[in-house]
Amino acid sequence: MHEELENFERNHVWDLVESPQNCRPIGTKWVFKNKQGENGMVVRNKARLVAQGIYQKEGIDYEKTFAPVARLEAIRILLAFAASKGFKLQQMDVKSAFLNGFIEEKIKQRPEGTFVHQAKYTRDILKKFEMGDSKPMTTPMSTNTALNADEDGEAVDQKEF
């Protein structure tokens, strides 16, 4: 459990904040498991902090977690294919890789679709071009014009703005 919490701290992905009024927080729970060696002796105590799903029902995989693992045959096929095409492969430790990236994204699920908040991407682009200190600014826009792809490539009437 301490190792998992240290990963959160090291990767700067966990902040205690007030819950917004229009959002319902997702509950979490600790799942503990003893990893055993071939002789049945406990070789490692594992702890994972997992999100409690809204649709979980007691008695149906309620205490289980899932971690997809590639079969050895699939890895061998990937390596053979990469070698035949001259691809360069790199290996990385993914023990706590999930902590980077998706936690910073704000996603809303609504009946009309899934919406991703773009603030993180905007900040990253501004940082990349050394414009992180730029102030936000409103952009005037015609409210009567439909926002469709302009397949004909016609120029925008700049006098409207």
Structure report:
By secondary structure, this protein is of the alpha+beta class. It has a domain of 31 residues. The strands form two sheets. Strands 1-2 form a two-stranded antiparallel sheet. A two-stranded antiparallel sheet has the order 3-4. β3 and β4 form a beta hairpin. It is extended and about 80 Å long. About 4% of the residues have low confidence.
Report helical residue fraction.
Answer: 10-25%
* DSSP strand content: 15-25%
Number of helices: 3
Q: Largest beta sheet, briefly?
A: 2 strands, antiparallel
Strand order of the largest sheet: 1-2
Query: What gross morphology would you assign?
Result: extended
Q: Would you tell me the overall average pLDDT?
A: 72
Query: Cα-atom Rg, whole angstroms?
Result: 24 Å
| Poorly predicted runs of 5 or more residues | 98-103
Order of helices and strands: HEEHEEH
How far is the first residue's CA from the last residue's CA? 57 Å
Instruction: Write down how many β-strands occur, each being a DSSP E stretch of 2 or more residues.
Output: 4
Structural class: alpha+beta
Region (Disordered): 132-161
Protein name: Reverse transcriptase Ty1/copia-type domain-containing protein
Domain Reverse transcriptase Ty1/copia-type: 11-107
Biased composition (Polar residues): 136-147
